[in-house]
Amino acid sequence: xxxLPSSPACxxxxxxxxxxxxxxxxxxxxxxxIASGTGQHVAHFARELPGWQWQPTDxxxxxxxxxxxxxxxxxxxxxxxxxDVLQTPWPADGGPPFAPGTFDLVFCANLLHxxxxxxxxxxxxxxxxxxxxxxxxxxxxxxxxxxxxxxxSNQAFDADLRTRNPGWGIRRLADVVREAEAAGxxxxxxxxxxxxxxxxxxxxxxx
Length: 207
What we know:
Layout: H1 8-24, E1 29-34, H2 40-48, E2 52-58, H3 64-71, E3 81-82, E4 103-109, H4 119-130, E5 131-141, H5 152-164, H6 173-182, E6 186-193, E7 197-203
Helix pairs in contact: 1-2, 4-6
């Protein structure tokens, strides 16, 4: 697979994220990955968490060949589908939409800070629709937290993002939590990760 597009960041963080998922998830379930990109995460997680069925997605189909190549031979990884969080219903490929309560986990890494702010409430609303009662939304990436000093590396990263696109930038966790609550999700846990990132867990609680 040397010729496949690859993300060095995915290669570095997939191990720590997997360790966090192992501590958070039940032995089996159904998972939806948002913004699968090169497919490195979904292939790694499907291989290491065989009790989970994984549905990769991405905004366009340009990298579907990489996802399919990396997931080849993994019976618990479904073919990728096109999903833009801003387009409803999910997914946006003209196929059947995801029914309410389809997934036990929605996983999203490194999206919110490299997307317009509108993607944050859209992610929360879409996840709340797709998650089964008791299901979880897990996000990974950098956040700004009130009362917590921002690492210099994240300060520089945030400035660079906003220079590249004024609509991008590291999000305040409190703002993300507010949008989650508006969609019917609650903040359950936050876990510090290497390189000043967080795994943030939201839950859809059974009423």
